[in-house]
Amino acid sequence: MLSRVGDKWSVLVIMMLSDGPKRFNELKRLINGISQRMLTLTLRGLERDGLVTRTIFPTIPPRVDYELTDLGHGLSRPVEALGKWAKDHLDQIEAARTKFDQRNDG
Asked: pLDDT for 83-103, tens place per residue?
């Protein structure tokens, strides 16, 4: 489970679904850089873990919505807090990386 929470794509999908259901293509547009295959694999993994539900609507063409389960909503709060922390400390993180790289490149 920790590998799922630590996975970049899973975190982004959970964050995008935290405000309500989304369709596959909408998620793909919202998550910069994710491939169709990676989004499919990520959604399947989240569904398997009980964090996301997939609802198929009998329309033509078929419509599929993805949304967080109660378990997924419970996880979205700490995930969003972690994202906020990272954003708030981005300058410090970048400075530490630069310092590390300078020490270890020469």
From this structure: 788 889 989 999 999 999 999
Question: Which three-class secondary structure state does DSSP give residue 63?
Answer: strand
Q: Do the beta carbons of residue 67 and residue 53 sit within 8 Å?
A: yes
CB atoms within 10 A of CB 38: 15
21-45 tens-digit pLDDT: 999 999 999 999 999 999 999 999 9
User: H helices of the chain, where?
Assistant: 2-5, 8-17, 24-30, 36-48, 70-88, 90-105
Residue-range domains of the chain with CATH: 2-105 (1.10.10.10)
Are the C-beta atoms of 48 and 65 separated by less than 8 Å?
no
The distance of Cα 50 from the centroid of its chain, to the nearest Å, equals 15
The pTM assigned to this predicted structure is 0.79
